[in-house]
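YM 10:42: Ribosomal RNA large subunit methyltransferase J sequence, as discussed on the call
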Amino acid sequence: MHYRHHYHAGNFADVFKHLLLIGLIQALNRKDKPWFFLDTHAGAGSYDLRHDIAAKTAEWRDGIGRLTGLGSSDPVLAEYLTLAADPARYPGSPLIAAALARPGDRLALCEKVVEVAETLERTLRALPRGENKLADWAVHHRDGYEAASLLPPKEKRGLMLIDPPFERSDEYDAIAELIASAQSRFAQGQYVAWYPVKNRFEADRFVRRVGRDSARPVLDIRFDNGEPAEGQMHVCGMLVVNPPFRLLESLQAAFDEMRRHLALGPGAAVTSQWLKTEDQCLKS
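YM 10:58: structure's back
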């Protein structure tokens, strides 16, 4: 039995992850030069939130469901609300990247579960005319932890998204090792990893390790939705290696709205910390 993201699609963690991903890609799009997007655990591409699978957990109701009908002038949040407007086609990270890609940009999408990879390929091929602007995408039927072998890209600019299901006991270590391997091949690349905070000690140890080992700046951002229920994941993080200039400022308005609408308790908050700053990189 393999992990099925359909159960969790559109939940608070997805909203957080996808807003940050949009912010990162919008930053790449500020320059004309093409970029390369590498998704290590791509999934099926899109998810029908009306399906019985999504209804079993209904996690989306406390995620994208709380943003339905909302309008925004903020470029990050407005883009997300447009892309996620259809509950029959809630976009995963590959579709978000495809929607924001320009002619010349390139996507490499890794998915080791064959039937899920095949679904992703069908989903990308079926994008309506006008959405599928890029011809250069490829789905790789492989373990995402082997994705460093696809680096460095010919484009010289790139972003790797690491978003595993956290079914392995050593997932934090595997992510840290992948980032180190990828940086050794493509030092100027940007790397972003999603992770759950179920054990704060383990999560803190993980981000400190990446911050220690990286030669580039490392920024950790976490979202706590304030959920008071025992046993429920209510905190997750995004670790960004070599973030673009003023990333936090570009996301501030979107994150403020996310926290306000998705809060399930008074403890809801978005927090950030630098594990390694630009100045520390210059001194090392």
